[in-house]
Amino acid sequence: MIENAVAAISGVSLALGCLLMLSGALGLLRFPDFYTRMHAAGITDTLASFLIICGLMPMAGWSLALAKLGMILLFIFFTGPTASHALARAAQLGRPALAVDGQVDAGVVEEVGSAAVEVEPDSGRI
Amino acid sequence: MLIATTVALLVVMCMALARALLGPTIYDRILALNMFGTKTVLLISVICFLFGRPEFLDVALVYSLINFVSVIGVLRYFEYDAAVRERAEHD
């Protein structure tokens, strides 16, 4: 009875984790703008990782592996938002360099910091 | 089920690499690498259960530490780069 309960829980959460991860990665590719892509990447980094590691936990049972998985989960839980915040802040600081996001995808401003595009930064902000 | 998770993880890692190559700006590339790093951590954990070797989890833990530090390091470099240029423009 316990075995198939464990298998059921881990199976369902692993499947959900994979589904969310694939949808997040698809969003990462298809979204038009950097900040929307960050949202898509955020989903896979936090929720999908949480579901997959929670899916692995019943397999480990009451052992050291369970403690290590908990450590990994805790660490991803803390570093995910911090890294996203640092990334968004750096992108925001480099805002004049990025110029208008719509234009960026047209490859007008390729490398960071080229002041070639004389566009006031707030035009075209969604 | 573990094999399906491994395949899904590998597909997502390829997508992240595609975004890293395509990404128009530097920040897209850093975002893709950050995502690639966390997926590597998950892949190591899943493989650890696939092969039944619990010591791989230490590798996954250390890898997530390194991934976080490297992302912050790269961002610190670009943030400083942009700030210096901004100050140069205003002076």
General description of the model:
Chain B: This is Multicomponent Na+:H+ antiporter subunit F. Chain B: It comes from Microbulbifer rhizosphaerae. Chain B: It is a multi-pass membrane protein. Chain B: It is found in: Cell membrane. The complex is a heterodimer of chains A (126) and B (91). Chain A has 126 residues and is mainly α. Chain A has one domain. Chain A has helices spanning 2-30, 34-60, 64-93, 95-98, 101-105. The longest helix of chain A is centred in the middle third of the chain and has 30 residues, at 64-93. The N and C termini of chain A lie far apart (54 Å). Chain B is an all-alpha fold and 91 residues long. Chain B has one domain. Chain B is 90% helix and 0% strand. The longest helix of chain B has 35 residues, at 56-90. Chain B starts with a helix and ends with a helix. At the A-B interface, helix 1, helix 2, helix 3 and helix 4 of A face helix 1, helix 2 and helix 3 of B.
Quick overview:
Chain A has 126 residues and is an all-alpha fold. Helix content of chain A is 75%, strand content 0%.
